Amino acid sequence: MSARRTARRPEWDRSAVYIGGRWRETASGRTVEVENPATEAATGTAADAGAADAEAAVSAAAAAFPSWSALPPRERLAVLERVRGALERRRDLLVETTVAEVGAPLRVAREAHVDTGLDVLRAYLDAAGDLAWEERVGNSLVLREGIGVAACITPWNYPLYQVLAKIGGALAAGAAVVLKPAELTPLSAYLLTDAIDEADVPPGVFNLVPGPGRVVGEALAAHPGVDAVSFTGSTRVGARVAAVAAAGIKRVSLELGGKSASVLLPGADLEAAVPASVDAAMLNSGQTCTAWTRLLVPRADLDAALHLAAAHAGALVVGDPARPGTDLGPVVSAAQRRTVTGFIERAEAAGARIVAGGAERPAGLPRGHYVRPTIVTGVAPGAEIVQEEVFGPVLAVQPYDGVEEAIALANGTPYGLAGAVWGPDRDSAVAVARRLRTGQVDINGGAFNPAAPFGGYGRSGNGRELGRWGIEEFLETKALQL
């Protein structure tokens, strides 16, 4: 990467938390470095907050909640409109920051991270404007009110989008928020907080406490002053969050892992479906919870599908995420690279055939946490690489005999977050999609809808984000009998 690209911007060197409407140093004064995964060099710093900072943030949020929730919804939405405008003015910086802290290629950072995040916030504003905040049911007046203090704990793979998917719904609902962003990618959250500060969001309505999950996350999940916890991350950590929060009878929303299948029905257009499925598996270097990491094809089409998948994966450009032509950047860390290559090595040792890519480092990239886009086949339904989330650029291709087997394979993991069905016509694809135990299914390449509900079945979690469903996660319902 060029010197211009690797230079540390002032916006990326931070040391404070944002509590009660002002920046302040952490109780410990500690900071952590943020690594650029493409260069392995420090690209910035962030606060290393602790339990005392979490306590102060919850207190500030609790103090701000009564007046914020009492505002008419249109007044809260006017504040959020200002936040969205402030984010729009930072769009280019947000893209550059995403490239630097996630390693996402420029196009992916712009379209999938930043612009999609802004679309999600826009959809929340539209949904809140249409929501029935009060309605008559017989002799009752039914009210919808903000739940209280919401702790939002977000992951590193989409640091702006994931934050907006939570706080957009929470703030629109009238909740007050404490945000704990991922330790690996906190810089986007700092820029969001700058926008919130510029937009004159009332003090305490939004608070930022970057820090380790085992400290800040646990403190928030356990805190008696927190009324709702919204967590996105691994299934293992999500289970811990739910267990800690359960003692306080908090509302808990979990968006966890996925092992989604792209199902090609007999007669589907392979030329369209296979490359699209590869792209979905490889997006953001495979670090996407909704990635279609399993491609299910009729046995008669297996060879053709493997040829198309290998050719498409082999044509993807892996390298410097700051270069406009790059398709895949690095994974987020050395630990994540070891995890992904370990899955590939174990699958190959167990007899899987590597059709494209593999565990070896990509040629010409001696530094950075890069993984080659990998296609594997010859894997059993119970194989680790079929059952467990890899969270890297790896696609497993499986043949099936008959549509009933395809549905059984698609439903044959503990997860149920997303997926796709490709058929010769919409009706046949929808008929199969209705039988998939998963929260969201794309039909013949259907586009992402930021106003539609998003969430999972089984080990993929509970609760829903986006649109009116994402607002309702942070609402209480009250009935007045008149």
UniProtKB/TrEMBL annotation:
A Pfam family recorded for this sequence: Aldedh
Catalytic machinery residues: E255
Record keywords, A-Z: Oxidoreductase
Keyword Hydrolase: no
Residue stretches making up the Aldehyde dehydrogenase domain: 23-479
Organism domain of life: Bacteria
Keyword Oxidoreductase carried by entry: yes
CDD domains, sorted: ALDH_CddD_SSP0762 (cd07138)
Gene Ontology molecular function: oxidoreductase activity, acting on the aldehyde or oxo group of donors, NAD or NADP as acceptor
Family, similarity comment: Belongs to the aldehyde dehydrogenase family.
Listed PANTHER family: ALDEHYDE DEHYDROGENASE (PTHR42804), ALDEHYDE DEHYDROGENASE-RELATED (PTHR42804:SF1)
Protein name according to UniProt: Acyl-CoA reductase
